[in-house]
Amino acid sequence: MRIGELSARTGVPAATIKYYVREGLLSGGERRSHNQVEYGEEHVRRLRLVRAMVEVGSVPIAKVREVLAEIEEPDRDLDSTLGVASRALSQHRVPAEEPAAEDLELARAIVRGRGWHSIDPDHGYLWTLADAIGRLRELGLADMVDVTGEYARAAEIVAEFDLSLLANRKERDEILEAMVIGTVLGDAIFEALRRIAQVEVSSRVFQRGQRKQSGAEQNLSTVDR
Amino acid sequence: MRIGELSARTGVPAATIKYYVREGLLSGGERRSHNQVEYGEEHVRRLRLVRAMVEVGSVPIAKVREVLAEIEEPDRDLDSTLGVASRALSQHRVPAEEPAAEDLELARAIVRGRGWHSIDPDHGYLWTLADAIGRLRELGLADMVDVTGEYARAAEIVAEFDLSLLANRKERDEILEAMVIGTVLGDAIFEALRRIAQVEVSSRVFQRGQRKQSGAEQNLSTVDR
């Protein structure tokens, strides 16, 4: 197909497609004549993947390139590829300095509390977690540290759903693509649902539901569905 | 205190403090003499709040200014202030165009499925959710749409924890500050825990735990703790 059709099918303007080719996010099409370049189905799929990262995930171009390079590296094993891609797609930085010992211990206690025994005690995301805990403490908001593990319980529900989707897939490329999209769109979906749930729970807590509906009690009775 | 002490107590370099004052994120200190400016405890607290948004949440300066303006607007009611701040702190954009009807219907069905009856059917985050659903469909990954509502169930657990923390607070400023910090650090904490949980669940699914430990069964037996 010509660039016009590729643009129409993906919703990406032709100028942006050319920019992605220059930036190495997309292979160039096959040149047929002086002013005709032919693109295939693999370009449609790749462009949608890039668009999901850039538009939904607000992933910077340099990181998109990094993730795509990981996907295309045939020799790397699946597990470490997933790890590298997961880190590249993180919105939140792993802190450069080791967090305070007490914060790291608290982060490890949350993980142990869930019975997560496969986690390296120096895993990068444990540092991210410890860093966030340290900031809450600094801000005098130590009561916001989720020592009860409710966040971890919720994260496990999400991770089990995520992994069940990967387990349905067999080809390496399929698994990696699903993982990248699942990470980016999953973060967006969870963020939206967390905000929506806050509105809902807030209306129960502050009993504002009563004015609009037959009563807050009705809401409360549906919590555990 | 002098700017040097303010810098030491918050970990923010003096040049950055001056930049934040110029950008209106922090009120200037009290000028005592030609070259001495005095800062107080309110500057320490505000700087930590700004730092949490900028460093942990990667919130752009213009958005930080928007959130702070909301916090300082005394006439606005708490509920709408929380809404504006929540939107400003979103990492993911609300789509500019109305999503496809089928995607929006699916998003509403997920919300109804949880018994969330207080949500406006045109809530901005329902659009974000529908947009993500549409992209999964476009990418041929419709099976990734969480029709079973596992993400929503997890989001409700997190939102109930979040709201319980706000309910502990009485002063308007306290509630808003906790909400801003809880949103930014809560996103970071959940993101880290989701990635950690993926490693854990992945090691169970792919049985890699067996090499390091006494058996994957041991992990499985602790799932529901």
Automatic annotation (TrEMBL), chains A, B:
Gene3D superfamilies: 1.10.1660.10. GO terms for molecular function: DNA binding; DNA-binding transcription factor activity. Residues 1-70 form the HTH merR-type domain. It comes from the Bacteria. InterPro entries: DNA-bd_dom_put_sf, MerR-type_HTH_dom, MerR_fam. The keyword DNA-binding applies. The keyword Mitochondrion does not apply. Keywords: DNA-binding. Coiled coil: none annotated. Pfam families: MerR_1. PANTHER family: HTH-TYPE TRANSCRIPTIONAL REGULATOR ADHR (PTHR30204:SF98), REDOX-CYCLING DRUG-SENSING TRANSCRIPTIONAL ACTIVATOR SOXR (PTHR30204). This is MerR family transcriptional regulator. It comes from Glycomyces albidus.
